[in-house]
Design goal:
Blueprint: H1 4-19, E1 30-38, E2 41-42, H2 54-60, H3 62-76, E3 77-90, E4 93-104, E5 110-121, E6 127-134, H4 136-147
Parallel strand pairs: 1-6
Antiparallel strand pairs: 1-2, 3-4, 4-5, 5-6
Helix pairs in contact: 2-3, 3-4
Length: 148
C-alpha cells in the first residue's frame, strides 16, 4: 500500500515522462482496466461498440488506452506539456488542476488550456479511473486541430 506522498511522487514521475514525450508509465500506476473520461464521457464509449468487447477494452483502457490517447494528443499539439497544480489525494480520490500547453499542429499557434483532474485510486495505489474536465470549446479546438 502506497502512502499519499509516495503516490504523489509517482504521479510526478508520470507527468515528467509525459513532458519528455515518453509513453512510459511508472510501474503499476495504472490499473489494467483503468477508465479514461473527458467531460464525463468514457473513451471506450467513443468506439461505437459495447464496452464489454475485448478489443475495446484492450485499446481504450489501462496502459494501452493511455498510450493511444497520448499519441493522439502528441499529434494534435507539438511538444505538449502539462503542469499539475494543487494535487492531493484523500480517501482514494486524487484531485488537482492541469495546465496543458503546446502548439496546435494546424496553425502552430500557442496553446494553453486548464482542466480539472480527478483520479480514483485503489488500495494498492493503482489509478482505476482518470477523469478530465475541460471547457468544451477548448476540446472542440483540439479536435479541429487534430482533423486538419
Amino acid at each position: 500500500m502506497l502512502t499519499p506522498g509516495e503516490f504523489v511522487g509517482r504521479v510526478a514521475e508520470w507527468v515528467a515522462a509525459f513532458n519528455r514525450g515518453s509513453l512510459d508509465l511508472p510501474d503499476g500506476i495504472l490499473h489494467k482496466d483503468a477508465v479514461f473520461r473527458l467531460n464525463g464521457r468514457a473513451y471506450e464509449d467513443t468506439f461505437g461498440r459495447p464496452s464489454t468487447d475485448p478489443l475495446v477494452r484492450l485499446v481504450a483502457r489501462g496502459p494501452g488506452g493511455y498510450r493511444l490517447l497520448v499519441k493522439a494528443l502528441q499529434y494534435t499539439l507539438t511538444a505538449p506539456e502539462i503542469a499539475l497544480r494543487n494535487f492531493e489525494i484523500r480517501h482514494g480520490l486524487a484531485t488537482g488542476h492541469i495546465d496543458l500547453t503546446g502548439r496546435l499542429r494546424d496553425t502552430a499557434e500557442a496553446w494553453v488550456s486548464n482542466a480539472d483532474v480527478a483520479m480514483t485510486v485503489d488500495i494498492d495505489g493503482h489509478v482505476t479511473e482518470l477523469a478530465i474536465q475541460m471547457d468544451t470549446d477548448r476540446v472542440a479546438r483540439l479536435q479541429q486541430a487534430r482533423e486538419a
